[in-house]
Specification:
This protein is an alpha+beta fold and about 160 residues long. The chain is built from six helices and four strands, in the order αααβββαααβ. The mean pLDDT is about 85.
């Protein structure tokens, strides 16, 4: 009988010891006087209105589009490479559902922009150059704003790869 109770008794003692150790070794609570001295700093810049990164992220959210975009790069009538991209949208808080409802129309418009970019040589050579990517992001953002309105803050290229054939 003692052989059956001993493992249970050992488990209860181990749980009690672990709980007691966790209680006594927990970090001390923060000092209320120290946290009261840390008042938020006012960012008054006169007449110009400048938003910090914290203020932007507090009023925006990111929506990752479900599927990747696959764009063929055509040279001399043949597909020379494929560009595969993942895109996300930065939108005003509360607009996520609106993006998902309009996703088919948004994907169609984005594909047209990406095909145009490919046809003008945007994915040739050093296609990830700063000026080239800025031009692509600007075109995608303008297109997203025509579909979704002013809720769109920007388009982010999260992944991009070119596979030469």
């Amino acid at each position: 009988m003692f052989g059956k109770i001993f493992p249970i008794l050992l488990a209860v003692i181990g749980l009690a010891a672990g709980g007691g150790a966790g209680y006594y070794l927990r970090p001390p609570p923060p000092d209320p006087e120290a946290t009261a001295d840390c008042a938020p700093i006012s960012k008054d810049h006169g007449d110009t209105e400048v938003e910090s990164t914290e203020e932007i992220t507090a009023t925006s959210e990111f929506v990752k589009l479900n599927n990747q975009f696959i764009v063929p790069v055509v040279e001399d009538g043949l597909v020379s490479s494929l560009v595969i991209m993942s895109l996300s949208l930065e939108v005003k808080t509360g607009s996520t559902e609106k993006v998902y409802r309009a996703e088919p129309k948004l994907r169609d418009a984005f594909l047209q922009v990406l095909f145009d970019h490919a046809n003008t040589g945007g994915f040739a050579g050093a296609f990830t150059g700063s000026a080239n990517m800025d031009r692509l992001r600007t075109s995608l953002t303008e297109t997203a704003r025509t579909v979704l309105g002013s809720d769109v803050i920007g388009v982010l290229v999260s992944d991009i790869v070119r596979q030469d054939t």
